[in-house]
Hints:
About 70% of the residues lie in helices and about 0% in strands. By secondary structure, the protein is an all-alpha fold. The chain has a domain at about 35-175: LemA-like domain (de novo design (two linked rop proteins)).
Amino acid sequence: MKMKTIRRTACLIGASLALSACGINSVPTLEEAALADWGDVESAYQRRADLVPNLVATVRAAAGSESEILSNVTNARARATSINITSDDLSDPAEFQRFQDAQNQLTQALGQLRTVVENYPQLQSQARFADLMTQLEGTENRIDVARTRYNESVQAYNTEIRTFPSSIGANIIHGAERMEPFSAAPGAQDAPTVNFDGMGGTAGAGN
Length: 207
């Protein structure tokens, strides 16, 4: 009787190990990790989007003549926030690229805004503006960290679903699809530079 119990236990352990080796557990575990890191990316981008309206309003009050730049930032924010990407879209290269392009356009628009406000020392000296720019810089750093972690998780997941024997469970049981990572387009991942060297100084300081 004891021998049958031992054999049954051994069979169960063997079956569990076999299933584990086929990616039954590892594939969904890595997928969930990637999705969790994607949530951090979305949160960081949302934080930036929430800062933009206050930043634009503050700049407009002191530099209303720069209406074109302010409109570019506002429109870029609208495009970035209008793209609602789902977990399924993370496996869609075209949709993921559309999301990334929209976020990159907002990054570039904010960079242009930073260049303009350097010519307004009275704006740079405002505590409210300085606070917003500090928050923006911190948010851009969060975005960079979140994207890096997401890319690492995606690389681990994509490798797992393509590697034998996990690829068996990934394809047959889970129907796993490759997730898209962020690509390093020239300048696309550079955070807008925040320079306070000329605060309170002459126009054009920091150039």
